[in-house]
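haha ok so turns out i had the wrong file open the whole time. this is the CORRECT one, sorry everyone. sequence first:
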Amino acid sequence: MKRNCSSGFTLIEMVIVVAIVGILASAAYPIASLVAQRARESELRIALRQIREAIDAYKQASQDKRVEKSLEASGYPPDLDTLVSGVNDASSPDSKKIYFLRRLPRDPMFPDPTVPAADTWGKRSYASTPDDPQEGADVFDVYSLSAKSGLNGVPFREW
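then structure:
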């Protein structure tokens, strides 16, 4: 007598396969979230470097008398948008503009994507202390407004 063999999977085999896939997925999730966190931290480092280099370039242009400033001004940009919109070159006879950034990067740690990029950063004026950064008449430095810490344990605000 011939037995009718079907070539399908049994319910137990399917349950075992689903359980194995679930275990592998649960092991991969922490690694995936760690990779995503590292990518955001790298983005933050790059954004901070770009903005700080642009602020320094503005200050250098001010010292080189390419940017007009009053006697009591520090020589730092009045706001972050000035780095993108540019300023008239005081040393150029036809007043060409000097641009310091193509676009202002956002703080990747800022939770609301609808907020303008300039408002995602904390700003420290030249007149404020490093321990208690405050906004003022100029932008001397920028920092993240996030209260979280990086993978290295240092709060993003102190980067």
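The mean pLDDT is 90.
again sry for the mixup
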